[in-house]
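Below sits my pick:
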Amino acid sequence: NNYHPRLQFTLEVGNNRLNFLDVTLIKNNNFIMYDWYQKPTSSGRYLNYFSQHHFTHKIGVIVSLVDRVLHLSHPMYHEQNFDKIIKILIQNGYPLKLIFDTIKRRIHKKIDIYKNSNKINNNDNNSNNKIKYNYFTIPYISNMSNKIKNYFNKCDTFKLAYKGINRLDRIVKVQKDKLQTMLHSNVVYKISCGDCDATYVGQTKRTLKTRITEHRNHINWNTQQKSVITEHRLNFSHEFDWDNVEILDEEINLNKRLISEMLHIHRQKNSLNVQTDTDLLDKAYDCLFTNY
């Protein structure tokens, strides 16, 4: 600690134990044992059984804890660690029967995997004949999601996967400086005419400032093909409100962003967008605009 006043090291007496990530390494008669380690600050909070998430997510919580016991602790510590995860799961509302049934199935599956580990070559040959599925992710809403799943069960190439609606990042916000409107990227935006009620909706993955600058300067380009914004400016001598461009949506995924763009184009009252901008919008969305 004498090397530099800002470099100070601490010493922890380990008593033949060393905590490393999720494992405690234990020195025992010249052998290294290992046990599952949880920080003292661990709250024991996991996905609650009564939360609105798909049942497979809740089974996954139990399975992940069982795997931690089996993979991160020596068999000598399995019994006490299984007691620990059973108490944790009960505190999170899981039924005792479900806990024991899932633990039993997982242990049997691990045993089967171990017994069949010598049949790797046969498994590799069989894996080539397995059907490869494309997974389609939707938000999980009880009752409704199950009805949608019944339709997808008839499909041989697609399978449904579910995601939760209430995520922690929507509740707990990182206190960052608010990004200026023109510096946002991956957005669907709307430009309004300053002299009439005409509007234009577009999308871009670049910063909004870059795309709006292109719209604004397009009138000066030496080209025969004029954009709808440029034609409106030339035909009616109108000017757009470039300083108050509205962000309608933010989406990183291109396909989702294009769908969002088409939906917002459809919702405009006096749209400058050409008809082909919404040609790819499925008729199934028409019912969403009956009130507009």
Observations:
- Residues 137 and 201 are 27 Å apart (CA to CA).
- The chain has a mean pLDDT of 85.
- Residues 17-116 form one domain.
- The beta strands are 17-20, 23-28, 31-36, 134-139, 158-163, 187-192, 199-204, 246-250.
